[in-house]
Amino acid sequence: MKALINATIHTGDAVREDAALLIDGPLIAGIVERDALPAGTEVQDLGGGLLAPGFIDLQVNGGGGALFNDTPDVATLRRIAEAHRRFGTTGLLPTFITDDAAKRAEAVAAVRAALDAGVPGVLGIHLEGPHIAVERRGVHDARFIRAPDDADRALLESLAGLPALVTLAPEMVPHATIRALAGAGVRVAAGHSAASCAQAKAGVEAGITGVTHLFNAMSQLGSREPGLVGAALEEDAVWCGIIVDGHHVHDASVRLAWKAKANTKAQGRLFLVTDAMPPVGAPPGQGFQLYGEAIQVADGRCVTADGTLAGSALDMATAVRNAVRRVGIPLDEALRMAAAYPADFMGMAATRGRIRPGLAADLVHLDADLAVRATWIAGAMAVP
After folding, report:
1. Which tens digits make up the pLDDT trace of 208-235?
2. Interstrand relation of 55-60 and 89-97 (parallel, antiparallel or unpaired)
3. Are both 194 and 323 inside the same structural domain?
4. CATH number of the domain enclosing 369
5. Phi-psi region of 301 (alpha: psi -120 to 50; beta: other; left: phi over 0)
6. 291-329 in b/e burial notation, b at 16+ Cβ within 10 A?
7. What is the pTM of this model?
8. For the ranges 138-142, 262-266, 343-347, which has the lowest average pLDDT?
9. So which residues are the catalytic ones?
10. How many domains does the chain have?
């Protein structure tokens, strides 16, 4: 048994001062008063700061100089997860964007192998595309975009039993396919979509429960046609990921989305994602290749030669700081947006996302500036 002491503990439900967090192997054993530690407990003094549930990022394309689409194998996944761990991310969904069918199958196999090997931080997979709208593709390669055929449906159905998120355009995919995925336990999100509000709502009726990078690459909110953005904000049951880097979404729009999703029925349905690319955790100034095109990184933005955003250079610790300092979201809520809410969306609340007895000892220790001092994954500590 190990006790972590001398840090404010943000459990996801409450804040505890002058308490000790007990870790028993890979799991959280409980929180006790510091003068009530069990005999023989190993004590680690954190020296102040705050201890919170480790961040969970459901949209990670790359990190540490590696891109999942380039080399979809276990070594790449390990490299990406290690890079993001430095910024407090203790669990992530490697995200494979629109590409050819053979590589998509390789990506699914790689994630299964990583889970079997117990690669720290890898929780499942996010397939973003190729069943999206060409006109809202963003940086996705139009050559591979299509409606699902029998082979595509077979691959998607094979995700049953694997923690998986699939992003698709609801106007591009039959409702029967969406229902089958949702029925198999796969989380389905709308994204890269030109759907009308009515089409988006029909997709929700079929089983869509999330929206990928709200505001970006989707039909916008208008006075006469609310689009996918309007449907996402109005539907209380829909979770929304959002990129809070100051480039993808204006701070005022983030604030409005949070207010829409902070009502009693929808509370907890807005969560942070990074949409991170290889520069996260890599030496500064490094660009990368995507579909054979050079992507430049400048002022925190990843862009093509024509200025199209190509993912982000954002990490989760910075996203939390931005949510608090730029947007004005309370710290407790920003921490939930980085851990509890994504866990809830993915159906993982029984195993991670909060500090509770019996949950995974996946933790992040932050200093007063919300910079990462240390992380724990399944009780194993690492420092940046």
Report:
1. 999 999 999 999 999 999 999 999 999 9
2. parallel
3. yes
4. 2.30.40.10
5. beta
6. beeebebeeebbbbeeeebbbbbbbbbbbbbbbbeebeb
7. 0.98
8. 262-266
9. 275
10. 2
